[in-house]
Predict the 3D structure of the following.
Amino acid sequence: MPLNKQEFSDNLNDHKKIFFSYAVKISPVNFTLLLEYFVEKADDVFFYIEPENKISFLSFDSLSRQSFGFDEINSLAGMIELLNSKLISNHSDYSGYNLPSFILTSKFPIKRNSEEWKDFGDVDLIVPKIILYQNSDTCFLIANQFTENFVRQGFFNDFLETQAGLIYNLENKLTPKNNSPSGIRVKEDQDELSNWTKDINQLLTKLPEQQIDKVVISRRVEGEIINEISWKKIIDELSGKYPSCTNFLYKSSDSIFFGSTPEVLIKFNQNKFSTEALAGSIKRGLSADEDKTFELELLNSKKNINEHNAVLDFITNALKDFSENINYSKAPVVKKLPNIQHLQTSINGTLKKNANILQVIKSMFPTPAVCGIPKSKSLKLIEETENFDRGLFSGMIGWFNNDGYGEFFVSIRSALVNKNKIYAYAGCGIVDGSDSIEEFEETNLKLKPILSLFNNADKS
């Protein structure tokens, strides 16, 4: 069982206890086969894969999962600082691999306390007991543990070898589930389009009144699962279709949140950072010529360019107080996914000395790509307009370590499975000149990566 908040605090404050994080290289393993097993057997599972970057991450047991409110960043920072002050690690033995230690997730910052999202905290800091991590062809097993002072290093080597042996034995015994597609029955809402149109048209009158440049409004599609889900098949299919995205799964208790996000929030490489502005969208063409026509339409669309530049300005302004320099290209490029294409601008730079990554993240999150501009007014308008809880949709997932490395992603193109229910989410940016029908069709495009995984559910 994971340590509760008091037990975890007791370990942090016990001067006899040290926090050890030890890693060992192991032979590569089948991550998605193991994922499918642990989704059934474990209460806390975190997984993501970046196929193009050949990076995979799987944790399946937590030393502790601590939840914080949206306004408790100082408490979170204090716990991380204390944890790092007690850390003894051998990760530096594997320089160049940037091994993960901790997981950090956040819901979209509107607090609704819905039943469907009750298994996740507003902001969760997860300290895994065991992490499997693969970078290219090199695989690691990482173990985190509290223990007494002066423990011999051989104890950890023996422990890691034992855990690796258990993983190998388990992998050899596992076989994939039935490979047939999972099915869901989507709950039909005959009034959804008319209600959406009414809401968007009302919003378009509020934007100038409230001096809001852009607000992101989302939809939720609800369905019932009608046969068993093979999580190996789901993740393998997402990775095959969307290799340039980060494909992820996060299980807590009875709930599973999963998806395929094209959007990086920010990556830290010690004092270096990289991020992106990803906003402005259009569909893919049925032929190469039609696809090129849509691409040029997107690049020359005043509405999409304005939306994209607003996101770019927000991110660079948020980062300037923490940065020595910020670099980005003058004009966006087009990022093509199988079902949609986006305007994208890559951003990178150097952080000021002693910049705190939590403060950097707080300044950027949520981005205008999932919230709006200005942020506070957009959050209020979203709360007034949407009649459901976004939860982790358009929130954040990621990992970090004590050496200044970390990767965080905006959790879009995603869905929640809770027992026999599934909730899929998609949003779009509403600006002056938006057309409600076109925006509704855009959300259908963004729902497709998830819904097309299941029989009877494709909204295209």
